[in-house]
Description:
Elements: E1 6-7, E2 12-15, E3 22-25, E4 33-34, E5 49-54, E6 61-66, E7 72-74, E8 87-88, E9 94-98, E10 102-107, E11 113-118, E12 138-139, E13 145-152, E14 155-162, E15 168-174, E16 178-183, E17 186-193, E18 200-204, E19 211-212, E20 221-227, E21 233-239, E22 243-247, E23 253-257, E24 264-266, E25 273-275, E26 284-287, E27 297-300, E28 336-337, E29 343-348, E30 355-360
Antiparallel strand pairs: 1-7, 2-3, 3-30, 4-5, 5-6, 6-7, 8-9, 9-10, 10-11, 12-13, 13-14, 14-15, 16-17, 17-18, 18-19, 20-21, 21-22, 22-23, 24-25, 25-26, 26-27, 28-29, 29-30
Amino acid sequence: MGRGTLYPPESQTLRDAQTGAEIRQITAHESIHHHPFYYIPAYDDAMRHLVFVSHRTGRPELFLELRDSGQLLQLTEHEGLAEFSIAPSHDGRYVYFTDGQGAWRVDTETCEEEQLAFFATEAMREKGMVAAAMGTTALSYDDQWWAVPVKMGDVARLVVIDTCSGASEVIVERDSIGHPEFHPNDSSLLRYAGPYYERMWVVNRDGSGHRLAYAREGNEWIVHETWHPRKRELLTTRWPHGVIGVDVDTGAVRPVCSFNAWHPMVSRDGTRMVADTTFPDNGLQVFDPNDGVGAPQLLCRSQSSNEGKHWNVDHCPYDDGPVEVYAPQHTHPHPNFSPDGRYVVFASDQSGWAQVYECRVEI
């Protein structure tokens, strides 16, 4: 078994015991599985396939679920693949990823890999399992630009690669860079996460306009942000007190919801958000991100273990001193909408192994 191998379908249809929602378990092998990070699309725009990571070969590799047949296609056989760096192209042609020193993409039809950049560094990512250490990357919604954080000793660089020409440019240098994201409707605008005390930054693709978008108040924990697709606004968790919206031009702040929305992600049309919850785990909640109330409605229970005791706080724990973090990301649901808004993809280790699930959303 290796690159290009087709596996038989593993999916089964379930019902949520509390809401009756239809849930499809996509993977079943007794190994770790997960989709991309919560704000990165798991599906191509045409929804021909769903991208996920599987450890069934003994290490993380890229897979597709081919949605017309349900078969699972192994895309890579790549040592050192950084499993949360994956960024599927919106046209469905490629999946982008990094390893220890290189930036790559794999063709979803031929399974051929292509290296777009090489970085002369011992390790591209910081040590750990959260924030910048995850090594998340970002692809613009027109698929032309790929933003890749690269750690070069004590310096973090945000590199933007032209996926057509292969040319690259360093647009930011600083101490820490994590979780970049292009604005869904403006491929010239990015946001990224700096250190916890100055979290939300925006920058133009050419490196201009680099600025802090929000100065936190006291020891509030600003975390897990994403763009509102219809505004120049960042929607971000103010853990555990809810979500706020921050206008990146005026600095205006507005309430979005007031429950413990952990990893909140907005639908492509900007009309709904979905979030997992923890401390307490109240399941996956759907709410309106625009009415200033954001009343939660239960979609389904993830029943995942949600590892990470440092989340059981009412302020930023890093202000209290060093924090020992154990938070394997495959134990977090990380819900995200499909492009058509009809499904929410999430991960859960309720069976003892992290698997990928898809819940149907009533529209």
